[in-house]
Automatic annotation (TrEMBL):
One GO-annotated biological process of the protein: fatty acid beta-oxidation using acyl-CoA dehydrogenase
Residues annotated as domain Electron transfer flavoprotein alpha/beta-subunit N-terminal: 4-182
Protein name in the entry: Electron transfer flavoprotein subunit alpha
Cofactor, free-text remark: Binds 1 FAD per dimer.
Record-stated family: Belongs to the ETF alpha-subunit/FixB family.
Source organism: SAR324 cluster bacterium
PANTHER family, A to Z: ELECTRON TRANSFER FLAVOPROTEIN ALPHA, ELECTRON TRANSFER FLAVOPROTEIN SUBUNIT ALPHA, MITOCHONDRIAL
Residues that, per the record, bind FAD: 206, 231-232, 245-249, 262-269, 283
Keywords assigned: Electron transport, FAD, Flavoprotein, Transport
Listed InterPro entries: DHS-like_NAD/FAD-binding_dom, ETF_a/b_N, ETF_a/FixB, ETF_asu_C, ETF_asu_C_CS, Rossmann-like_a/b/a_fold
Entry keyword Transmembrane helix: no
Pfam families given in the database record: ETF, ETF_alpha
Length: 318
């Protein structure tokens, strides 16, 4: 039986939705599943960590509040070694991308990133991941005994009814690594919905033109309690922050609903959102490539369409 260690992604003192998605899938594959949580105050999450896992490893110390890749690496390697994990699974975050290759090197494991699906073919686990900016799906057969894997947000579904068995193991606090320390964590503006976690994403392209267009689409995102993303064109022109960029060189999202507003559908943008379950595109050019992948297309001026949508949403809500 495979032994899968799922690394908890924690934000604002709570487990992010990706944890339940990874634990559910590991259980579906028939693995023995453990969790590891690293940070300040993470012991308080013991009950949540126990859902779907047999053992919960925690490294809990005030010094881990500003968690470095080195500290995360040390704690996860410690947990993986104690558990005898042959697979370590991360949700796709910047911290995961920084720590996963280090963990793989220390455990002498393969490292596979950007995973969108996992299939079992006989005794062989086959990993699927997009390649060439999402144009093809690559099948990866891992030959190494161990693998460290990073899974795309929204790739797996969380299931209800997982059995919880609390078995907390406290890890020793990783020693401070003075080669890199974190001085300050700059958080997003309060209230903003995290793009990676959002079930709905409204994205803003060059068709939004100016601040007025951005404000209109931000309003739509707020109405839907959605994450607010952007194409690179809007980031490069300074209308949207860098961390809102969706695409090959931005964030990869896979929400239930992606609403692309005034976005042409360049391959580099599609690479960041073509895993979305339902795609709605609003564009005044009927030949825009975004319509090739959209489930629902609205041909027209977003400055006319979005206010109508907002009115209709208001009516439904009330
Ligand atoms: C190496 C590399 C990496 C890249 N990485 C990324 C990335 O990560 N993410 C990304 O997004 N891009 C990326 N790009 C850029 C990408 O190639 C495109 O240039 C960019 O996605 C275009 O953004 P856009 O669709 O907003 O703008 P445009 O391509 O200019 O499209 C604007 C669209 O808005 C429509 N429109 C105009 N006015 C209206 C209106 N009033 N109402 C409705 N529709 C309207 C137009 O018909 C048009 O289709 C990358 C490029 C390179 C070379």
């Amino acid at each position: 039986m495979a032994k899968v260690l799922v690394v908890a992604d924690i934000k604002g003192g709570a487990l992010k939705g990706s944890f339940a998605e990874l634990v559910s899938t590991a259980n579906d594959l028939g693995a023995e599943v453990a969790a590891v949580a690293v940070g300040a105050g993470v012991k308080a999450l013991a009950a949540d960590l126990a859902t779907g896992t047999k053992t919960q490893y925690v490294a809990d110390d005030a010094s881990l509040e500003k968690l470095t890749a080195a500290a995360l690496t040390a704690a996860v390697v410690d947990a993986a070694t104690q558990f005898g994990a042959d697979q370590v699974w991360f949700a796709s975050t910047e911290a995961a991308k920084a720590a996963a290759p280090r963990i793989a090197a220390k455990l002498d494991a393969a490292c596979v990133t950007d995973i969108t699906d996992v299939q079992v073919d006989g005794s062989q686990v086959v990993i699927l991941r997009p390649a060439v900016a999402g144009k093809v799906v690559e099948k990866v057969e891992v030959k190494a005994d161990k693998v460290v894997a990073i899974v795309r947000a929204g790739a797996f579904d969380a299931k209800e009814g997982l059995v919880a068995s609390e078995n907390l193991v406290e890890l020793s606090t990783p020693e401070a690594d003075l080669r890199a320390t974190i001085q300050e964590i700059l958080t997003e503006a309060g209230g903003a919905v995290d793009l990676a976690d959002a079930k709905i994403v409204v994205s803003c392209g060059r068709g939004a033109k100016n601040e007025e267009g951005v404000a209109l689409l931000k309003g739509l995102a707020e109405d839907l309690n959605a994450g607010f993303g952007a194409s690179r064109a809007m980031v490069d022109s300074g209308f949207m922050p860098h961390d809102s960029q969706v695409g090959q060189t931005g964030k990869v999202v896979a929400p239930s609903l992606y609403i692309a507003c005034g976005i042409s559908g360049a391959i580099q943008h599609l690479a960041g959102m073509n895993g979305s379950k339902v795609i709605v595109a609003i564009n005044k050019d009927a030949d825009a490539p975004i319509f090739d992948i959209a489930d629902y297309g609205i041909v027209g001026d977003l400055f006319e369409i979005v206010p109508i949508m907002r009115e209709e949403i208001k009516k439904v809500r009330s």
